[in-house]
Structures are given as structure tokens and as C-alpha cells.
Design brief:
Two copies of one chain form a homodimer. In chain A, 41% of the residues lie in helices and 17% in strands. By secondary structure, chain A is of the alpha/beta class. In chain A, strand 12 and strand 13 form a beta hairpin. Chain A starts with 6 loop residues before the first strand and ends with a helix.
């Protein structure tokens, strides 16, 4: 990593190493030719390995939000009863997409900074037998809180047999999510998160159960029509011109990830996150999330009284070369966030904690 | 251009020069920070210069098809009467999107290889007073035929006052399209065409008239909701994480384009296209398009009797390093296509014509 570029500690885009960035500069190829067919097939297979799924997975030229929309509009119909489990801004967004396309959405909301109590999911599903699908965020980027998807999935799938659509944008590839074992019917992610590539591609796993729902789904869609993706994938192509450069980068990033191994990647994220949590607490700061649901990809830290978020973030960036993220919506004046998805060196951890320390001291 | 890479003569992605490709490898930045704000504002302004519009223009992380969908779902409502003028596969796609979202679509179709007779547009609009919007392809990539948008726009806007949505994916930035002067209400394009960048970003101009239509439009959308793009653009951000690398590349490509000048670019495309048309005719081959509507970005050539498209394309690629495009759908066995958008050197023209000549000779 060159020393003259910013230590980018926002929750995506993550810093991308020169080794992967170099692939972004490769010459264009025909996206309807043999070379790209081999590339898309190989990238898709390796994404599936990390997703821990043997079912379908498609790659969209879009941001993560596009994959969340794709999950909804390919499985649901206007008027469908849907439970949206939200623990923050991205959970709200998932619910909002379903509402805009005409679903009848019941919301189960937790306080900001808390994860979802699985018992409450049981209770809402018991009280609303017409619910067809459940939307849930795995890792809430706006608060740095991780939901216990394994427990939630057990309730949604085994106890109630509903469709389970998961926003895994900032979780898959960084923290454990066993798509098939946990019976997640669709899981969205995006290239600029734990995948160590620039933004611009989104991923969506899609189970057999999802395809069954798709057969009777009537929400309109064209660019995000997964049936087109499935049909074209039979000849090793996407339906629309794909972002070739990101396929080249992802090809390299996936090599590195599989060489490291999935459980090693999860372990590394857990260790890095713990170092950040310990470090900010040693500075006397408090964490927004409780220890049991604190995210291993994003840490939210409460701003000390009297410190303005904007001043703090500006000093950290301009004087210490560390770019942190502010809070979103109602948390804007209350927290700052540290992104630690993908590769983070010990040097970057130290530099980040030091930037936080000296920026706060300057503002006291 | 390195000599060991393919002479990519498909209608997008176009070859991208090392100078522009180099920008794709730049380090990530915060897409919600000052540096990106300056970048998106500057890229948007320069795109508008080339679009010849002073109205809105938004940049989507998507393929060109995404921008076509965005034009429709942000202006129309289910049940709206729409005229779709189609001269090939991409015109059919534009009509199809409108139908899927519930529009009542009247189709005006020309024979493959022909452009739209403007008098027929007048006649259809006279006979269908309920039509609210007209969809039209400027340059039909599947046939290499360019529609006379200036004349069609005059009828649609001045004679009938309808909304005019234009697929300019393979035309803007290569051949003349005066967005404001001709009163085009929305014009879609995409980065991998004349813009000389890799695929992954799409552009959509959006007139005041389109915003008026937007106020009462009820087709559902979220990822492609232009109101979100407009709102976020006020603070120099896109609503969803953008493809940063392509913004870097486009920044460089637009510099080169504006240094050359719009009319020089149009002239260069016209000259290059003429060299291709003359060259293939000198080989004794026939063109699909009539001279008056032949595209200056894509040339469709009729395959001689007895020549299989697949064999011909394979030989041109494997033995002569020139990648041509086949025909689409019903034209698959009848034509091949030469893409000549963006930068094309005289050497590449000669190499392409020579590859065509020797590949055909081998198959005789």
C-alpha cells in the first residue's frame, strides 16, 4: 500500500491493494466470447464457494442496493405480506424497496445499536400467518451491529417455512454466513465490501425456493430480471454488457481469498475488529453496539459530549490521513464509524487509533 | 495500443487506450467526500457539454439498458399509451421495458436494415391521439442503422408535444445528437461506447418536461429512482455507492474528447465509417444499411452465400486477431458487424479489412 494515499476506514469502498487494482487496467475483451465465458463461470463458482452455496448466484453490474431490489422484485408480488426486520438505515431501505413495489410490509424494528431478538421474530410470525417472506439485514452498516442470522433463519425456515431474503452486503466474505446450511433463499452482497475490489458489481445468491417464488412473482423488472441472467448464464454470458474491469479484479481477489481460506478470513476479521474495539475503549470511548452483537466489519463509536462529528472527521482526515465515516440519519451527530472489511494491516489499525486519539484531544 | 491485444471491433466495449485504462487502477476514495464531489460534478458537467444539454444529467452504476429502464420508469405510469419506434433488437428492448412496466405500447416497426420514415411517425401519432410518450432508438446497434432523430423529434415535440425518450447508447459522443435543440426529453448512453471507457456506467439526460412527467409517474422504481439521484446530486453524491474507477477513467476520456472538440469527433467517426463502408464494398461485399441511414458507429455487412457466420468470426479472431460481432436474433446467420466507435486508428481499419478479406477467402 503506498504511503501517500489515505487510510480509508469507511465501510466500503475498502482500500484495494495495488495487486488487485492492476487488474482493473487490463484491455477490454468481448463479453460475448470464450475468454469472458471462462471468466464469468470461474468467478461465479468461486463466489459460490465463499457464499457456501451450491445453488444459483448471479453477478449484476450495479451497487449492493441493486442486488437487494433484485431479491425482492424476483420473488414477490404487489400485495404480498412481508416482514421486514430492521436494525438501522439499510434494514429500512430493504423494507422501503418492498413497499415501493407494492408489498404489504410489517416492520420489526430494534433500537439503534441493538440486534434483533429472535423470539420477537417468532412472535410476529405467529401473529401474522399471512406473511410470505422475511427481509433481514445480516450486518447493519449504519450501526455496526450483526444480526444472529443463524437463529433467525431457523425460525423463519424451519418453524414457519417462509422465504428468507438477506442483505449480506457488508457481511458475506468477511463474517460467517452459511447460505445453504442456514437456508437463506437470497443473499445480496457487493464488490466493494469484504471482496477487496472497487465498487460496481453486486452479487445475489438465489435458492430453488426463490426460483419457485419467482414463477408466480409479478413485481415488474427488466434490468434486474434474474430469469434473463439465468438464461444467458447457460451460454456463459450476462444479459447486459457487464463491468469487465471489475471481473478482472474480482478474479484476482477471489484467488487471494481462497488461498487464505474462508475460515481464516473470518478469523482475521474477528481479530481485527477486536483490536479496534479494544483500542477505542482504551481511549476511554464507548461503543454503540453491545459486545455480543458488535460487527466484525464495522465499529460504531459514540462521540464524546461536545465533540462535533464534522470537525472530528475533518481533523482525522486532513491532519492524520485517516478517513473515518460519520453516522447516518439520526446517528449523524452521535457516532463515528470505522470500516474494517477486507485487508487491514496492523499498521493501519495503529494509525487509525492514533488519529482518533489526537483528533479528539485537539477538540477538547 | 499494445500489439499483442485483440483488435476489438465489436459495437462496445470499444478498445480503451492505456492512458485511460491506467486511471482504472487508481486508489479508492470516499464517495461521500470532497474529492469525489468535485469529480462527479466535473464529469457530469462535461458529459452535459457533449450531450449538448443544459438540463439534468445523471450517472448510474449500470449498463445502458439500465438507463433505458430509468427513462421509462421515471416518466410513465402503467396504462399510459406509448409509441415505440423500433428498427431492431434494441428498439424492441425499449418497447419491451415499457410493456413490462404496464404501458400500453403501440409499435412502429421498420424492416431490419431500414430507418424510420418520419411521415409514418406523423401518421401513427395522428391516428393515436392518446399517446403520451414516444420511445426511439437513435442508432440501432443490431443493424448499424441511424434514425433521423432531428426530423422525428420535430414531429414528436413541435407537431404533437409528446414526451420523447431516446436510446442514444451507441450514438451520443460519436455522432451528432443535440439534446436540447432537438428537445429530446431523456437520452440514454453508456460508458463503453463512444466515451472510450470500460463498461459499467450509464448516463441519462432528463429535461424539465421529463421532470414534469415524473411528478405524476407511478411506475415503481428504487435503484433507478432519479429523484434520489437529483436530491443527492445537490450535495455532490450519488444515492448508491458508485463505480469510482470508471469515474476516474471517464474523467480522463472526457478531457481527451473536449480537447479534440465535439464536431471534430463527429467528423472523425464519419470518416472512419466511410473507410469501412468503402473497404468492405471494395471486397465485393454488400452493406445491410442504405447509404442515407448507415451508422457512423457500426457497420453491418451481409455474409456472402454459403459462409457460416461462426466459422468466419472464429477465423478472423484466431488467425487475424480481429474480433468482429455476429448478427443478433434473425440476423444471426445473415450479417456480421464492425464496431467503430471511439478511437480507431488507420492501422486498425486496414487490419480489420484485411482480416475480413482473408477469412472469407479461406472459407470459399
Amino acid at each position: 500500500m503506498e504511503s501517500n494515499h489515505t487510510n480509508l476506514r469507511i465501510p466500503g469502498p475498502t482500500p484495494v491493494t495495488p495487486e488487485i487494482l492492476k487488474e482493473m487496467s487490463r484491455f477490454m475483451i468481448n463479453h460475448r466470447g470464450d475468454e469472458f465465458r471462462q471468466l464469468i463461470e470461474s468467478v461465479t463458482e468461486r463466489l459460490k464457494t465463499i457464499y457456501e452455496t451450491k445453488q444459483d448466484l448471479h453477478i449484476l453490474t450495479a451497487s449492493g442496493t441493486g442486488a437487494m431490489e433484485t431479491a425482492i422484485v424476483n420473488t414477490l408480488s404487489p400485495g404480498d405480506n412481508v416482514l421486514a426486520i430492521t436494525i438501522g438505515a439499510f434494514g429500512d431501505r430493504f423494507a422501503n424497496i418492498a413497499e415501493i413495489y407494492g408489498a404489504d410490509v410489517t416492520i420489526l424494528r430494534s433500537a439503534l445499536g441493538e440486534s434483533t431478538d429472535p423470539d420477537k421474530v417468532t412472535s410476529v410470525l405467529n401473529n401474522n400467518p399471512n406473511i410470505k417472506a422475511v427481509l433481514v439485514t445480516h450486518n447493519e452498516t449504519s450501526t455496526g451491529v450483526t444480526n444472529d442470522i443463524e437463529s433467525i433463519a431457523k425460525i423463519v425456515k424451519q418453524d414457519f417455512g417462509k422465504l428468507l431474503l438477506v442483505d449480506g452486503v457488508s457481511s458475506v466474505g468477511s463474517v460467517p454466513l452459511k447460505t445453504d446450511d442456514w437456508q437463506c433463499d437470497a443473499v445480496a452482497s457487493a464488490s466493494q465490501k469484504g471482496w477487496m475490489a472497487p465498487p460496481g458489481l453486486a452479487f445475489l445468491s438465489f435458492s430453488l425456493e426463490s426460483w419457485k417464488a419467482n414463477a408466480s412473482s409479478t413485481m415488474p423488472n427488466f434490468y434486474f430480471d434474474l430469469r434473463q441472467y439465468k438464461k444467458y448464464m447457460e451460454i456463459g454470458q450476462p444479459p447486459w454488457t457487464p463491468n469487465l474491469s471489475l471481473f478482472f479484479a474480482l478474479d484476482k481477489a477471489l484467488d487471494l481469498m481462497l488461498r487464505e481460506g474462508i475460515s481464516n478470513i473470518h478469523l482475521r476479521h474477528a481479530k481485527t475488529a477486536q483490536k479496534f474495539r479494544d483500542g477505542v475503549q482504551e481511549l476511554g470511548l464507548k461503543l454503540l453496539a453491545k459486545p455480543e452483537s458488535a460487527s466484525d466489519t464495522i465499529t460504531s463509536v459514540l462521540l464524546p459530549d461536545g465533540i462535533q462529528a464534522k470537525d472530528f472527521l475533518t481533523i482525522a482526515k486532513t491532519e492524520h490521513n485517516v478517513e473515518l465515516a460519520g453516522g447516518q440519519q439520526s446517528l449523524a451527530s452521535k457516532i463515528f464509524r470505522i470500516g474494517h472489511l477486507g485487508l487491514v494491516s496492523d499498521e493501519e489499525i495503529t494509525e487509525t487509533l492514533s488519529a482518533i486519539k489526537y483528533s479528539l484531544e485537539k477538540l477538547k
